[in-house]
Adenosylhomocysteinase (Longilinea arvoryzae), 419 residues
Amino acid sequence: MSNFDVKDMNLAEGGLRRMDWAAREMPVLRAIHDRFAKERPLAGLRVSACLHVTTETANLMTTLQAGGADIVLTASNPLSTQDDVAAALVNRYEIPVYAIKGEDNVTYYKHIRAALDHKPHMTMDDGADLVSTLHKERRDLLPNILGGTEETTTGVIRLRAMAADKALDFPIIAVNDAMTKHFFDNRYGTGQSTLDGIIRATNVLLAGKVFVVAGYGWCGRGLASRARGMGSNVVVTEVDPLKALEATMDGFRVMPMLEAAKIGDIFCTVTGDINVIDAHHFKVMKSGAIVANSGHFNVEINIPALKEMSTDVKLVRPFVEEYHLKDGRTICILGEGRLINLASAEGHPASVMDMSFANQALSAEYMVKNSKKLEKKVYSVPEDIDKEIARLKLEAMHVNIDTLTAQQVSYLGSWESGT
């Protein structure tokens, strides 16, 4: 193959071993893979995927390929690629991959454009950079596109904004909205992998530290819970009164970021918004404060403002940049402000990505069957797909549950019975 761009093809064997290891924890996706191989529901479908290039994503790619899809994969973040996995997909499965960990923004978008040169019938996105670039630069491809899927909160927000502006030209299924995605992937996956990334980057002890979580969505809930489990004194900042109330009732201290900035030792943003930690927050932080982000884009921390306040920047550990401020303090930024769970760690555990990527695979199948009925807007994953994935996951975990009797079904559908 010549149509790929990865760091080093000699890494392929190690990537294959790690793909196999991840597959052990992905029984739902394996069951879909086996069915797809028999039924070939995606035969003839060209798919351009812009996702984090990890072992779990690799198992999704091979599942889509088993279903008959012709796939190209590019990275959805410059720091999220596992180079051995990228090489393995090219070497073993002949899937074109355009992704190199640490690539600059010019290369990142060159790779996205290469994925669009595949002339896809379907997009599979994580953050909506692929879809956004397609709509801005390659509108000639739009007539042939059936639809797409979107993996993460940030991407869904962008796509719903496009739909509201009548700028979205094909239907999208918001995989992120599936209960089997955001309940588990966002909460348990982000919670665990974000702490993993922070610890790998810094090797700091979390016990006894004031750990500030910016945002109390599903990712924030998971992160706050796990930081507390590691012994941290957790503070939550929020703008939504309902989420702030929930965090308070969950036992966390809740306060504005400006107050939290004065007492925090470690900060992590998980909001999907811009400048959540800004210049006026940096001005009151302790010297030595550690600041990370686990949202999709590197805009949640205003790093340009921090640079303006600094005399120099030193790389003191891999993925740890120490900013020396003009007043003598230091502030450490992890992973260039990019999502730390993938910048310095391996992303979510395979067992939660099993459900997320099962949603991707089944949503792709659904889109092939139903695209002509769908409008140019963002749809949630159909409930029957969501429940089937939950059923398969329970079955794989050897967990049995009750089923309703005919009498119970009848009772729940009636209104006559009362006190």
